[in-house]
């Protein structure tokens, strides 16, 4: 098979899309109401209990009905959950323990896992969300956007995009327990024949994380003709993957070297008035609170043009000051866990920024190197992807409870 120089998106002579390589994708979650997610778990219980106590018009006002959901809407229990299935107004049932989710690229929050409260919960994604799964989350694309094309997480992602059109969520595995990689049939065999060292689907994901670049058609993923370049990119991608996963799936939690680790120098007040950064002092201030050292690369780290640290803080400020209805029920002060999460986020962003030059060098090298195109994938039989590979796999090994207690028929 003759390698060709990769071109832009579209057509057989173009660089492959992530959609060509990981064909099964899920649309972002659509909660329909802001109060079902929160940066802290106790707030969700308070909101649930307030809604359960309310009745009639007051409950409907707090619920915030949509065309998809009202307090009377029955809905199936989410896979792996044992929530009520009758309308919430008739029988709220016991409070379901919240689940940790990734809200947007780097913000870890909490969600009430009750499908009666969610406009579009994407149950097909919940069925494969287990201790083996890893999700690739596309960021969408803005004009002249050269930043990250996607994030990776072990948490259930909501697929929210900081700006622009949200992208798709692509699970690494199509079935629970890490079975059946979500890769185009024949792709692993082709890559092994080309490069010789492609261990598994996780290696492919590492390459994608290192090499993908945004485009209006979805992330572009160049595939080099040179096996040495592939190995170099996978090695870099494994480092990126470790940082994105934050210690999940057998990795170590990210840490900056001693002397460079951020610390709280002055306690964060219960209601910090704002967030600011002093580049000269490498200090992040939250009202009278101070954290340092904070590398400039962490402060300037952006996705879709939005600073991640500013977005993280603004979401917590809004919960405390700008929310209405149930969403206004939040912590009275600044929880200690928020400070811990902020320190970890600074660390992750700083380490990702340090890998930025290596990632940019890889992309520049790929721009000059011979690469496989969509034509090559088609010639090898990898494209077109069979329609079944774009649909969820049948993963049920147990009954799921549908609306009003009926068994779900899938």
Structure description:
The chain is 30% helix and 13% strand. The radius of gyration is 23 Å and the shape is globular. By secondary structure, the protein is of the alpha+beta class. The strands form six sheets. It has a four-stranded mixed sheet. A four-stranded antiparallel sheet has the order 11-14-13-12, with no helix packed on it. The chain has a domain at 263-357. The chain has helices at residues 18-21, 41-53, 56-63, 123-126, 187-195, 201-211, 227-245, 296-299, 308-321, 336-368, 374-379, and strands spanning 37-38, 99-103, 107-111, 135-138, 150-153, 156-157, 169-171, 173-175, 179-181, 223-224, 263-266, 275-278, 283-286, 289-292, 302-303, 306-307, 371-372.
List keywords for this structure.
4-stranded mixed beta sheet; alpha+beta; 410 residues; 17 strands
Helix and strand pattern: HEHHEEHEEEEEEHHEHEEEEHEEHHEH
Average pLDDT taken over every residue: 92
How many helix segments? 11
> Major sheet, described briefly?
4 strands, mixed
Structural class: alpha+beta
Q: How large a portion of the residues is in β-strands, by DSSP E?
A: 5-15%
Write a brief structural summary.
The protein has 410 residues and is α+β, with helices and mostly antiparallel strands.
Write the layout of secondary structure elements.
Elements: H1 18-21, E1 37-38, H2 41-53, H3 56-63, E2 99-103, E3 107-111, H4 123-126, E4 135-138, E5 150-153, E6 156-157, E7 169-171, E8 173-175, E9 179-181, H5 187-195, H6 201-211, E10 223-224, H7 227-245, E11 263-266, E12 275-278, E13 283-286, E14 289-292, H8 296-299, E15 302-303, E16 306-307, H9 308-321, H10 336-368, E17 371-372, H11 374-379
Parallel strand pairs: 2-6
Antiparallel strand pairs: 1-3, 2-3, 4-5, 4-7, 8-9, 10-17, 11-14, 12-13, 13-14, 15-16
Helix pairs in contact: 6-7, 7-10
